[in-house]
């Protein structure tokens, strides 16, 4: 059948052989599709022109400081977890011109940066990533909306995918963000791949999601498909590679500024920023002026920056967090602690990127567990 | 017309690659020539205008007694002195002599060692005279060079980040070669500026821009060992273009094994 006007709450089955028609339908609705693709030894996010751009039959093995692409024994389209990229690169680009100013006699003219009007369809957004989008929405649109972020974000179509497997560094169950997709999506897919069957259960979350299904061949859902999907999500939830006790995290972090663990982790931490760059919610940035040599024109650029960068901590030319222990503490205390005060939520969604992409395998779940161990009491008469 | 600031470019022990970066500016070179008077740049023109100079760009390290005297003359003629490249800021690849015995090299290499007048060590310009700004790289990055000239013209601090190569690698969307391939990489302890070229081509970083502002070389050395590098190999990766930069020198010295010390 062809759905006339699928509405929020509707559910359908989409055959694997009709997946191309699904992509075409999204594109015909005017979206530029971005999603998972294999590049440089990893599954990254890039432009999806055809279903052959997807990581068909690929998966990955992840552990702290280690990621390896591997072949699957089947032809799954979404048989991987999350890679080094996150969707923030589309909404909050790593390097972006904000405006240009040109000299105009005694004064100057400001030329604002035009935004690309093409709406984006994010294909394959995982539950933890939907949670991350909700967090960056608060960061960039919660108060005074950031013009470039909101211009892009308000036009995004979120095509979510419920995870069919957990990665070695995943802990979304601990953070309460996944693996089931329950809200904040336009469409949600679950890939069903069993003997002789390859299909997707499609759940419609919004009108925008329903409207891209109009010309796609769909079938009504079956009880068996529903049972299979429930079992898939339950299996993923029970096979998380990591876990983190979420109890009282804010208070734990805010009450332990002098815990000896900070010095221990600093011996390993490279201050390289990889954790924050890979994190889907880290949003620190710097702005810089790029003037022309003749000083007739200047451009203002925004670049990703990080609390691990020494220069980022400079106030009046002096770093306020000169040691790497203080910078690691700043990151973790903000992410899991003061983020609650600032944005009413944790800054961590349990995606595991900071664990996988740390070159020296520092594991946030291990660090938090160590911080839960009270520091040894000071020796009587010791100290100064 | 207000006279343009006078620019001079000086060469000491070096390969000329950093000066060539200036000529490689092509599109921007006319703008540079409009903004400054290129008064002394032998690589580009034999026409030389006498000093003093407003801005001197100094390439190369100090390796001979003559050059040790000449850099003082250059400094005396220059209002602002900026060193360009790994040789001028860390002694360059030729600072490998600092880990060996120069007299022995002379005896082995030259038929008449008594013709050679050289110093025992190759040293950075700042070891001899006051330096206003050090631009890193082997070779330097063209955009950073233009930024330094532009900053000089508008009398502001140059915007030259001192963070790790990883920052730019991630901004480019590169996949980390350490994590995804197990390739040894100096990126986490190396200053950004090159544009993360090597990792973009699946190679580890060679450290061409020298140590970043807060390098944890001890942790990286453990990681290089974990990735399978023998101590000799670890020492060698720190002893290249920036071998005598203090943090890299200490890192190389900290690794044991055959050939250590020197």
Question: Please, could you describe this protein's structure?
Answer:
The complex is a heterodimer of chains A (384) and B (262). By secondary structure, chain A is of the alpha+beta class. Chain A folds into two domains: 227 residues, no CATH class; 123 residues, no CATH class. Chain A is built from 13 helices and 15 strands. Chain A has a seven-stranded mixed sheet with strand order 1-11-10-9-8-2-3, with helices on both faces. A four-stranded antiparallel sheet of chain A has the order 7-6-13-12, with no helix packed on it. A two-stranded antiparallel ribbon of chain A has the order 4-5. Chain A is globular, with a radius of gyration of 23 Å. Chain A starts with 10 loop residues before the first strand and ends in a 13-residue tail after the last helix. In chain B, helix 11 packs antiparallel against helix 12. In chain B, strand 3, helix 3 and strand 4 form a beta-alpha-beta unit. The model of chain B has no long low-confidence stretch (mean pLDDT 94). The longest helix of chain B has 13 residues. Chain B is α/β, with parallel strands linked by helices and 262 residues long. Chain B is built from twelve helices and five strands. Classes of the chains: A alpha+beta (384), B alpha/beta (262). Chains A and B meet through strand 5, helix 10 and strand 12 of A and helix 2, helix 6, helix 7, helix 8 and helix 10 of B.
């Amino acid at each position: 059948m062809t759905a006339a006007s699928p509405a929020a709450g509707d559910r359908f089955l989409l055959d694997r052989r009709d997946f191309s028609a699904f992509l075409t339908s999204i594109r015909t609705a005017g979206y530029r599709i971005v999603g998972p693709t294999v590049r440089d030894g990893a599954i990254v996010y890039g432009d999806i022109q055809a279903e052959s751009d997807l990581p068909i039959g690929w998966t990955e093995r992840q552990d702290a400081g280690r990621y390896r692409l591997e072949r699957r024994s089947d032809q799954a389209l979404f048989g991987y977890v999350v890679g080094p990229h996150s969707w923030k690169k589309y909404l909050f680009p790593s390097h972006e011109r904000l405006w240009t100013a040109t000299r105009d006699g005694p004064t100057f003219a400001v030329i604002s940066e035009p935004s690309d009007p093409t709406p984006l369809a994010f294909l394959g957004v995982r539950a933890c990533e939907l949670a991350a989008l909700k967090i960056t929405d608060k960061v960039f649109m919660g108060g005074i909306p950031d013009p470039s972020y909101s211009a892009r974000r308000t036009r995004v179509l979120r095509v979510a995918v419920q995870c069919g497997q957990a990665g070695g560094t995943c802990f979304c169950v601990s953070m309460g963000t996944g693996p089931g997709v329950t809200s904040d999506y336009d469409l949600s897919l679950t890939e069903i791949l069993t003997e002789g069957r390859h299909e997707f259960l499609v759940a419609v979350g919004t009108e925008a999601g329903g409207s891209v299904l109009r010309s796609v061949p769909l079938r009504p859902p079956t009880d068996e498909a529903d049972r299979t999907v429930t079992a898939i999500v339950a299996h993923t939830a029970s096979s998380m590679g990591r876990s983190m006790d979420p109890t009282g995290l804010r208070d734990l972090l805010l009450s332990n500024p002098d815990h000896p663990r900070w010095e221990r982790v600093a011996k390993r931490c490279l201050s390289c920023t990889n954790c924050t760059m890979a994190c889907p919610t880290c949003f620190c940035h710097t702005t810089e002026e790029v003037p022309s040599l003749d000083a007739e024109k200047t451009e203002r650029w925004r670049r990703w920056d990080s609390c691990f960068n020494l220069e980022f901590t400079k106030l009046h030319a002096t770093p306020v967090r000169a040691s790497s222990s203080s910078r690691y503490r700043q990151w973790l205390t903000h992410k899991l602690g003061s983020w609650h005060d600032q944005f009413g939520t944790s800054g961590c969604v349990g995606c595991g990127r900071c664990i996988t992409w740390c070159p020296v395998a520092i594991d946030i779940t291990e660090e938090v567990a160590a911080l839960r161990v009270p520091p040894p009491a000071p020796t009587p008469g010791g100290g100064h | 017309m207000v006279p343009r600031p006078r620019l001079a470019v000086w060469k000491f022990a070096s390969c000329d690659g950093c000066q060539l970066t200036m000529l490689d500016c092509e599109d921007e070179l006319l703008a540079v020539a409009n903004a400054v008077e290129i008064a002394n740049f032998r690589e580009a023109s034999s026409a030389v205008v006498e000093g003093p100079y407003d801005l001197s760009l100094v390439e190369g390290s100090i390796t001979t007694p003559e050059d040790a005297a000449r850099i003082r003359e250059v400094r005396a003629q220059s209002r602002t002195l900026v060193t360009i490249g790994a040789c001028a800021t860390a002694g360059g690849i030729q600072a490998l002599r600092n880990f060996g015995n120069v007299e022995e090299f002379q005896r082995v290499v030259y038929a008449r060692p008594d013709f050679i007048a050289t110093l025992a060590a190759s040293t950075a310009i700042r070891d001899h005279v006051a330096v206003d700004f050090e631009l890193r790289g082997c070779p330097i990055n063209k955009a950073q060079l233009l930024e330094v000239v532009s900053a000089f013209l508008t009398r502001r601090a140059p915007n030259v980040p001192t963070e790790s190569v990883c920052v730019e690698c991630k901004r480019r969307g590169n996949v980390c070669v350490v994590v995804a391939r197990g390739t040894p990489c100096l990126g986490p302890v190396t200053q950004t500026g090159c544009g993360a070229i090597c990792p973009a081509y699946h190679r580890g970083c060679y450290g061409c821009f020298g140590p970043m502002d807060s390098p944890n070389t001890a942790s990286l050395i453990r990681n290089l060992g974990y990735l399978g590098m023998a101590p000799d190999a670890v020492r060698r990766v720190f002893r290249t273009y920036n071998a005598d930069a203090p943090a890299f020198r200490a890192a190389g010295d900290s690794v044991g094994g055959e050939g250590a010390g020197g």
